Amino acid sequence: MDRYQNYHFSGQKDGEQIIAVLRRHWFSIIYNLFSIFAAVFLLIGGHVYFPTLFPIFQSPEFSGLFLFLENLFAMVIWILFFLIWIDYYFDVWIITNKRIVDVKQKGLFNRSVSELELEKIQDITTRVTGMIPTFINYGDVDIQTAGGKDHFLFIEVPDPYRVKDIIMNLQKQKSKHHQHQIGAMISAEIKNNKL
């Protein structure tokens, strides 16, 4: 908790403390970047072996076209890498002592921010499926609200069981505090009516 005491986010309420900031597990981005690594390997291999296999591309008429196509392919690879990184880095879940904030980034110009008050949490489900997620401990945390329509899905977060425990403990603390306030209000009302 002390780790985030100097951090703030847009829309943070007074007295709200950041408990955890979550992003998808590092293996998630490695898995998504696998196609980029394959394309870079293809680009380097094409640069080295393509002119050898097709000598026509070494001639002055076609060398400019070959260089243009290589550069175009390299720019496409760079743009795809950038989009994958943006999606990974700007997808954030912020757990505070009052609520959960879900920031989803889709592409460059599409961002949505949702929030869920701790009192509205009805059910929390953790899913870890597959051999690799089990070994390196990442998975999904699905938070269902009392209405049943809305839910928050933390996708491929590290240590999902710990995340579930953190949220459940915060919810219990918030519930006890809320019950204490209601009890104090009822006691005050009873005292006022007796006088």
The CATH topology annotation of the largest domain reads as: PH-domain like
User: If helices are DSSP runs of H or I spanning 4 or more residues, what is the number of helices?
Assistant: 4
Assign the CATH class of the largest domain: Mainly Beta
Oligomer: single chain
List the uncertain runs: none
Order of helices and strands: EHHEEEEHEEH
Please give the alpha-carbon distance between the first and last residues: 45 Å
User: Mind telling me the CATH superfamily name of the largest domain?
Assistant: Pleckstrin-homology domain (PH domain)/Phosphotyrosine-binding domain (PTB)
* CATH architectural designation of the largest domain: Roll
Integer tally of domains:
2
Specify the overall morphology.
elongated
Report the major sheet.
4 strands, antiparallel
Rounded Rg: 26 Å
What does this structure look like?
The chain is of the alpha+beta class and 195 residues long. The chain has 2 domains: 2-24 and 91-194, PH-domain like; 29-87. Helix content is 51%, strand content 24%. The strands form 2 sheets. The protein has a 4-stranded antiparallel beta sheet with strand order 1-2-3-4. A 3-stranded antiparallel beta sheet has the order 5-6-7. Strand 3 (99-105) and strand 4 (111-117) form a beta hairpin. Helix 1 (26-53) packs antiparallel against helix 2. The two termini are 45 Å apart. The mean pLDDT is 84.
